[in-house]
Amino acid sequence: VRLVESGGGMVQPGGSLRLSCAASGFIFSNYAMKWARQAPGKGPEWVATINSGGTSTTYADSVKGRFTISRDNAKSTVYLQMNSLKPEDTALYYCMRLGTRGQGTQVAVSS
Q1: Taking all residues of the chain, what is their mean pLDDT, rounded to a whole number?
Q2: Residue 26's Cα: distance from chain center in Å?
Q3: Most exposed among 15, 20, 61, 84, judged by the fewest C-beta atoms under 10 Å?
Q4: 85 Cβ contact list (under 8 Å, min separation 6)
């Protein structure tokens, strides 16, 4: 199983970023996928989940209405569209399949 995130960076408050997670080593379309994050000095926080078919999504209250999780099973990739970013969204973002996670991509929101 391999999960590789990309798309992080530095953005001003109110800005947007789109994160990608390319998966390999398993049948991607068979599994729900999650995004989680860990801010400096804090524990991990679940952000969003999408089911295997992409028809059902759930979000943490802290990101609901601002973030959108989606997937392309033909490309074995899961995405996280992040809009209206806030400084408190600053964190290392990573995707997960069951107990496996990628190395993450850093997001920094600052003016």
Answers
A1: 97
A2: 19
A3: 61
A4: 11, 13, 14, 15, 16, 17, 66, 107, 109
2-49 pLDDT, tens per residue?
999 999 999 999 999 999 999 999 999 999 999 999 999 999 999 999
- The pLDDT value recorded for residue 24 is 97
Helices (H) and strands (E) in the chain, counts: 0, 11
**Count of CB atoms situated within 10 Å of the CB of 74:** 8
Cβ–Cβ < 8 Å for 97, 3: yes
What is the Cα–Cα distance from 95 to 104, expressed in whole angstroms? 7
Answer yes or no: are the C-beta atoms of 43 and 92 closer than 8 Å. Answer: no
| DSSP 8-state code for residue 98 | T
Q: Say whether pLDDT at 99 is over 90.
A: no
The pLDDT value given to residue 106: 98
Q: What is the CA radius of gyration of the chain?
A: 13
Q: Which residue stretches of the chain are H helix? A: none
